[in-house]
Amino acid sequence: MSQFLNIFAPPRDLILVVAAIWVGLYFAEKWAPKHGVKLNDLNNIIFLPMIGYIIGGRLLFAIENFSAFAKNPQSLVSLNLDLFDPSGGLLIAGIVALIYGQRKKLSLWPTLDALTPVLAIFAVGIALSHLASGSAFGKETSLPWGVELWGVLRHPSQIYEIIAALLILSLLWFQKPGQHPGVYFLNYIGLTIGARLFLEAFRGDSVIILGGLRLAQVVAWIFLAMSLFLLGGGINNISKVSIAQRKRSRK
């Protein structure tokens, strides 16, 4: 374990994330035709948002801290990962993906199904990166498998996260795409949110709101309710509407 942490110490832990994306894309390309998604579109809808995430996250951080960047403009291309706005990067990545999908007239649910292997393997890479960097650390514990960090025993929350990500990947690996587009993706979302609700209880870096609620769990409950609604019938209605729209457009 110590050798792993030394090899992938920050910033080398990002290698694990990049490798996970590459492996995920390899398998997604194998399965994309089953969902009716072209390989070129699949590659573009992954890499273009990634570029948007990197550039957008840095630029939005620069705007938020304009005075500091104005004095040192070359820091815009700095390799310092702290000079970055992750939330802003995700927002820009989402906008880029939506624009590309609309311009290419990609069907939402089949595209999300095709992207599911990338997301599942990416989650494993993120968990490994957390372990290598020491982020997403656990709260204090007296359990015998606790790991010592900052002078106290803590839950090995990163190990829990790796196990959960691998279990979800295994479940999806043997699951055949459903009859209705989007079910495969929503199953992944439901499993991931369920895992987050469980894992968050062992985290020592959670954001606490309203006197004791964990923000990540509150958000997870909201998304879990949405995914269950769609799995329970909402997605069927969406599929019917999409089919009807396609028939009208052909006429």
Overall description:
- With 251 residues, the chain is mostly helical.
- The chain has one domain (2-37, 106-250).
- The protein is 68% helix and 4% strand.
- The chain has nine helices and four strands.
- It has helices spanning 2-7, 14-31, 39-64, 66-71, 86-103, 108-133, 157-173, 183-199, 215-250, and strands at 147-149, 152-154, 208-209, 213-214.
- The strands form two sheets. The protein has a two-stranded antiparallel sheet. Strands 3-4 form a two-stranded antiparallel sheet.
- A hairpin with a 3-residue loop joins strand 3 (208-209) and strand 4 (213-214).
- Helix 3 runs antiparallel to helix 5 (86-103) and helix 6 (108-133) packs antiparallel against helix 7.
- The longest helix is centred in the C-terminal third of the chain and has 36 residues, at 215-250.
- The chain is globular and about 55 Å long.
- What is the general shape? globular
Distance between the termini: 62 Å
N-to-C SSE string, H for helix and E for strand: HHHHHHEEHHEEH
Low-confidence stretches: none
Structural class: mainly alpha
Main beta sheet, described?
2 strands, antiparallel
Widest beta sheet: strand line-up: 1-2
What is the strand tally? 4
- Which whole number gives the mean pLDDT? 84
Domain module count? 1
Helix share bin: 55-70%
Number of helices: 9
Strand content: under 5%
Radius of gyration using CA atoms only: 20 Å
